[in-house]
Amino acid sequence: MIHRNKGLTNRAVIALMAASLGHAGLAYADESYPSKPMVEITNKKYNHDCFWGGPKGLDYGLLPNAQTIQKPVLYPDQGSTYFVAQLTLPPGASLTIHGDYPHERYFSFTVATQLGNGTLGNGDYLRDEEIHPDPGSVNPFVQTNSRDATPRRYKLHVAQGMLPAQRPRNTIYTMSNDPDAPIHLAMRNYIADVGYDGTGNAELQQVKRYGLPQVTLNLPDGTHLTGDEMCNAVSASKEGEAKGYSEKQWNQLVASSGDPVNAPAQPTPVWQLFWNVDYSVTGLFDPDPVSRESEHPANDDGGFANNPDTKFLMASFSLKYGPVYVIQGKMPTHQRTRHREKTWTPDTQVRYWSACTGAAPPSGAGWDCVFDEEVPVDENGWYTLVVSRPEDRPSNAKEECGVKWIDFGKGEGEYPGARPWVNVVYMRFMNPDPDWPQSPLNIPLPSTTNPYPQDAYTMKEYFPASHYETKAQYESHGCPNPIP
User: Can you tell me the distance from the alpha carbon of 472 to that of 484, in angstroms, rounded to the nearest whole number?
Assistant: First the structure.
């Protein structure tokens, strides 16, 4: 066992790996993700870079002495390891990022859009398969290539300004011409192959391997800076990320609602696609779709530093309606990569899917998550999720009965006025196939001419349905979908 209040020496890391890895170093005794060794070792390796903040995610933010930037305040996913850089670029400067394609399910680079008041929204990005390899290298994220292909080097550029009509190869843009504007650059890593650290690049036992991409600042006079000189020149910051929604705003909305005990949760849970903060958060308290769209128009701005390559469905819940709630739907087809599969599955509906419990927007905390490979499905591909507090967990809410249980968590969060019985569940549909008819990509934007949400109509059986029960009621169902 790792003692979280002590650093790991190289010898300790190797000993830990010997104890944690099974035959050939590939199989964990504990299949949960992320494994405790992965979190500890990744944090030990990469929490000291001057440019990138320490690894960010649900578990990383709980480590002793975690950096402020590592705190999970923007609805993170337990399957992710983010590295965030906060900086400014001198006029006319750019960044060059050299890295290796990681051994994992998904990665991307995103520059978030600054929406004002600290709010971060959709920005420019490139995902793994869109990043061309260096000459002589292979991109293992192209479906026709082996996931183990080598060599696997790439070079990416971050340029100032707006996205041009024709994007230069391997270049993302800050979406601002203001040299003083803050830049929020995120590298998103999802589901490292077993035996790899959170970067998906260095194997856990490779203590000296550095899995983070290397960054160079290119100045207009031809000077190139790296290391501390580069970090000083761009004013790299490890300050916490702004949540963009205050406790006062949220508490006022709750107090002025028709149901201050439960709002915005309803007796029949309502799932909706997340569009932008004004429509999807503030507008959530307006039950009339017409006035909601009029007063809080929907658009694609996003918020909470969302991944523009992901569509999010969200619903609010209150335990006052029942101590157990059940979520069911059809699982989209997805990739399977956790066990170092050599090839990609062609034509899946999403790259990745997950469901998480989380807090109210002033907190932005995530409580518990499950991802696609962890969730049992029946013979028709349907899943059942059961959410409750641990003490209310039904005895048959277990994988042997075809059910995945999720911890309700700490409700709205830990701030004055927060209600511990209200939370949110958010689902990620990452990199959905545009040719999939029921894709959330195809949900039309609410408008003044058609303000009524079309989410369920568009997604059909893939749209989650939810209801409340008591513990005894759920246990009375027995074991409906036993797994052999």
Answer: 25
